Amino acid sequence: MDSQGIEIEKKYDVGEAADVPSLTGVRGVARVGETRTATLDAVYFDTDRHTLASRRMTLRRRTGGGDAGWHLKLPPEPPAASSPDASAGPPAGMSDSAPQQRRELHEPLGQPDVVPDRLLAHLRAYLRGDDVAPVVRLETERTTYPMYAEDGTHLADLLDDRVSAELLGPAGAHGSTLQWREWELELVHGSAELFPAAQPVLADAGAKPSEHASKLARALAAGPDRGASDAAAPAVTVPDKTSPASAVVTSYLAAQIREILAHDPGVRLEEPEAVHDMRSATRRARSALSAYRRLYSAVAVRRLRDELKWLGRILGEPRDAEVMLDRLRGHIADLPPGEAATAVKDQLEDRIGENLNTAYRKLQGTLLSERYYRLLDDLERFRDQPPARPEADAPARKVAGKLVGKAARRLRRSHRAAKNARRGAPHETALHQVRKEAKKLRHVAESVGPVHRKSAAKVAKAAHRQQQALGDFHDSVIARDLLAELGAVPGLAEPVASAYVTLQTRQVQLAAAAEAKYRKVRKKSKKRLKRGVL
Q1: Which of 172, 160, 177 shows the shortest CA–CA distance to 134?
Q2: What CATH number matches the domain at 245-531, 3.30.70.20, 3.40.50.300, 3.90.79.10, 1.40.20.10?
Q3: What is the mean pLDDT of residues 486-501?
Q4: In whole angstroms, how large is the CA radius of gyration of the chain?
Q5: What is the mean pLDDT of the chain?
Q6: Fold (CATH) for 3-230
């Protein structure tokens, strides 16, 4: 059985002769429990290029202690959690003196050289086809000092580690073992306020914040490929009103790349909403590249947009099937119970379920393909080394305002086209185009949030309302057409055909209601989107 948790800790370098101080001198600590000592033997896995270490991830198989098994530590959490709507980039860098907050996944010991599949699912988007192998063996003699509050709460553990590290693989031939001592202060049920409270007590004992993010990073730094574990991508700063336009794009694109990578494991493991979230990030990245395309090399932008469109389409197939199945299950439940309702339910489950399974198989294959991994490489390369034109240095506020205005004008034109379109399929197609233009406006408004604040948020909100209403309209139209197709199959029993008509009529009613809602929200936001100026 797998398990996971959030690890919040701070590491300290300390001399061999240092004495562990009296921890009751730390504010809030009433007593120290009985110490315990264990020997931990851990083998760390990585690629030849130390891909995981460069992203501040660690994969190990450890024996000894109370948590023997496979452990995967994901990259340190940023100070504030990002969301799909966030335009801020990653933190400018984790301070050496700041505590790290990391998600840690556990799996049973299993086989020594066989990484559990559930952990691999979290790694494939970073490994991108490369294999992992043992790179370092660490033997740690760990003495744990549990720290308790007056009410008995287990606040934290001070871990006194004496470490012996051995490089494995080709690097192992270049040197002998490396030894050192370090302390870790790891929260259990205490708050982060414990870290500054402990700082002077530990400093007086000779401890100082560690120069290395992990034991693995320290071991690799002593090897022939020293520095490989520190080859993380350049920091992306949050743009402000004085930033160039390129900073807005880099920050927004970086946020979407993080979202794609964050939801990749959930898609592989078929977790709820993971496909939707990853698809949304893919669309946002594509929208940003489209809106700001004139600031960059046309060839580079076109290639990324085409590949993001391809990925979005692959993600969309299972997502659309899921939405349709959930929608129609609810409406079938409203039918009078009986053989007709059961027959309709079985037919729809078979039809959409088959499409869903086929789409998921296709998606799983896509996420293992060289094409997908190349897209991730290209996105990160664009983020880190953007092929910018001189126009990218223009003030962000000016450029952003023009782009939002342009997107708002496109939305108004698409609305007029839908209004003048002939009823039936032409009108429905035109409304779908309005939805796509509303989505583009929403995304470009989100991207300029750091430089236009409240006004950008208002535009994004108004566009989102139109997008949602027309999304409901589109889903109703697609469901109506599917029901009409299945209801027209020759030889259907009359009660079954009648049930299909009932469901189809319901979709027609829902489409009309969604279109009416769209007209209402558009009227409400007309002034804001007519200006289109931030």
Answers
A1: 172
A2: 1.40.20.10
A3: 92
A4: 28
A5: 89
A6: Hypothetical Protein Pfu-838710-001 (2.40.320)
